[in-house]
Amino acid sequence: MRIADAHADVLYQLRNASSTYAEASFLQAGYQDSLKAGVSLQVFALFAHPQLSPGEQLRQVLEDIGRYQRTMINTGYVQPIFYREDLFSSVQPVYSGILSLEGAACLYDSPEILQALFSLGVRGVGLTWNGANSLADGCREERNAGLTRAGKQIVSMMEELQMWIDIAHLADAGVFDVFSITNGIVMASHANLRKIHEHPRNLTDDTVREIVRRDGWLGLTFEASFVAKSEAGLEDFMRHVDHALSLGCERHLGFGSDFDGTSHALQGLATVSDYPKLAERLDKEYGRELAEKILYGNFLDFLSRQLPSRKTEFASIH
Ligand SMILES: [Zn+2]
Q1: Ligand 1 centroid vs 141 CA: distance in angstroms?
Q2: CA 20 to 30 Å from 238, out of 16, 94, 154, 285?
Q3: 61: domain CATH number?
Q4: Pairing of strands 39-46, 79-80
């Protein structure tokens, strides 16, 4: 079965590596293993540590984009997706990639820098990582404030550009603000459910229902500390899948593994090579049709709703 994954930190891991993406054997979501496991669409997160200055974060993000272009796209290993037309124009079999930004301090509050990153292929943004920045508070910030004025401006520019709004790391007050100031699609690329496991990185039932109501998308994630208290395994993870489906996520559910970004691997779901086991479990539990939707189809549908069209892009230029 084909698999789409909405969040992996491969680019972060490759930053100081001596081997290239195609050769690297230390990755949880390595290239060869991804192909073998059936992954055919991967979102590559751009992440720079928030303790760095915004300038240093911007430098790292631009370097990662350059490395992605030079060693993954230009070499033909990854076929880039920029517009919704690209989703259906690929020659099979294919391994597609999309860039997203995780933590947006590097924007310097500037819609123009956001526009520049869009032009380089970035298609989704999470305003924060776990702490606060000039745009909003992250989910680990005790203050739990919402979006700043600059954060709201960035979100409205994202809507204009049709970049996806990723609430995975946002504080509850920020999630509320996003829902208040936008009418459109909202997604969470890698988060789990608070009803199943109480954790600030997990979403409330109300948030999930609102994502569904807006025709958005939720990517459940394999970081063990977001799944259960201790020694979490595949069965614990399945409780999140089950609960998401009970909240109406049949057409809005998928996965954002957080491979190469997790510190606590989930037993049985520790690397991309474990995806076929999850696929088998989903097939057994929910049947082939729903399993295929959760593994791939729902994310593809989300992208066809969310991504800008090449036609409108050209129309706006001329
Ligand atoms: Zn993350």
Answers
A1: 15
A2: 94
A3: 3.20.20.140
A4: unpaired
3 state SS of 98: strand
254: which residues sit within 8 A by CB, 6+ positions away? 4, 6, 217, 218, 219, 220, 294, 295, 296, 298, 299, 302
Tokens 């520790």 belong to residue = 270
Q: Tens digit of pLDDT for each residue in 131-177?
A: 999 999 999 999 999 999 999 999 999 999 999 999 999 999 999 99
Q: Measured in angstroms, how far is the CA atom of residue 200 from the centroid of ligand 1? A: 12
pLDDT tens digit sequence for 84-112:
999 987 666 689 999 999 999 999 999 99
Instruction: Give the up-direction half-sphere exposure of residue 73: CA atoms within 13 A in the CB hemisphere.
Output: 18
Closest among 68, 165, 178, 172 to 125, alpha carbons compared: 165
Report d(CA 213, CA 194) in Å as an integer. Answer: 19
Instruction: For residue 50, give its domain range.
Output: 3-317
312 Cα–ligand 1 center, Å? 31
**Gap between the Cα atoms of 130 and 212, Å rounded:** 24
The CA-based angle 276-8-31, given to 5 degrees, is: 60
Helix axes 275-286, 234-246, angle to 10 degrees: 50
Distance 6 CA to ligand 1 centre (A): 11
The CA 103 to ligand 1 mean position distance, Å, reads 9
Query: 168 C-alpha to center of ligand 1: Å?
Result: 7
| Residue 181: partners with Cβ closer than 8 Å, 6 or more residues away | 147, 152, 155, 156
Cα 299 to ligand 1 centre (Å) = 18
Q: What single-letter DSSP state applies at residue 256?
A: -
**In the chain, how many domains are there?**
1
**Cα-to-centroid distance, 265 and ligand 1 (Å):** 14
